[in-house]
Amino acid sequence: MRQHLTAAGLLAMAAACANAYGQTGTTIYGDFDEYLGVIRSSSGAQVTGLNDGAILRSRLGFKGGEDIGGGYRITFTLEQGIGADSGSAADATRLFDRQAWLGVVTPVGEFRAGRQNTQVFYIGGAIDYTERTTFGSMFNTFGVPSRYDNDLSYKSPRLAGLQLDLHYALPENTGATNNKGVWQLALDYQNGPWRTGYAGVLATPNRATATVRERIEYHNVYLNYQYGDGKIYLAAGRSNNSTANANGANAGAILSLVASPNNFFAGTDANARRYYNLWELSADYRVGPAFRVGAMVGGAHDTSGGGASVRSANVGAYYDLSKRTQLYGFASVMKNDDAAGFRFSSSAAPSANLAGNDINGRRLTGLQLGILHRF
Predict the structure, then answer these.
(1) What CATH number does the domain containing 263 carry?
(2) What pLDDT score was predicted for residue 172?
(3) Which domain holds residue 112?
(4) What was the pLDDT predicted at 169?
């Protein structure tokens, strides 16, 4: 029944938006991203799956706004993730799991409120040539904070090449006096062939329950240089948002990457004391108008000395069939240290993946072959 209601709701929304197009400037958009993924472990285990979202999670979205005069404009976005391989909702508990926000553009910047993507998510295209989403991206393997509920944000105008973003996601729960929300800060500078910046996330544990007082931090700095037909990407980061779960020694996150309950965490996970330094170097080159190739290397170093470091490498290619449709392929390798248990991920978690002793301390290889269509 829930699936029928969800589908009916989306159809009704689409019809309403289509009828209102001339009045509000509402746009219906989305993408389908589907790939064949093969993952093999040095343990001998192997899985093959038809997966959603190597580059972009498949989605259906509605966005638009209304000019209200005086340099002011009301804006909105509603966006639902879809499993292209099954047709199911990415999150069965939400109608719009990816974004649901209302904003106002003013002469001094844009203000938004609702479920929003994080700034770390938005700068994916500046982190590496794959937009930090494929098997081979170390930042994607570690886990990127992607979006939070109850998020209030401000985006400044770009002045002399520099733009500022601030976010605060409210905790909104009965213990609000003991809980803090999730803060974000980002600075992005662009000038000619150069782009550089910083994006960070900071969250404080529940004061009433915390036995581990460490805040959860995620910091990223990046530098890009456009050289003729290609680009060089350098990114570095630091975070303690990695922990064990049933899938492996580092296959979980302490602070949820896509909105933890009420945007806070208990503060009881001792893994919060383990910090990782992340790095990645990549480059791409446009061989022709429709064909681009790239490669990258990266790693995450366990600074606690616990032997939970990991290294990765990747090569890949994109071919544009048209302005809206793209073919892609990536080959990746990742080596976990003895105490590390990271595993491959993509824009959407692979429906077929390895876990446990097949990733802990193992060397993993992965292949992705897919198609992305935007509409």
Answers:
(1) 2.40.160.10
(2) 79
(3) 2-374
(4) 95
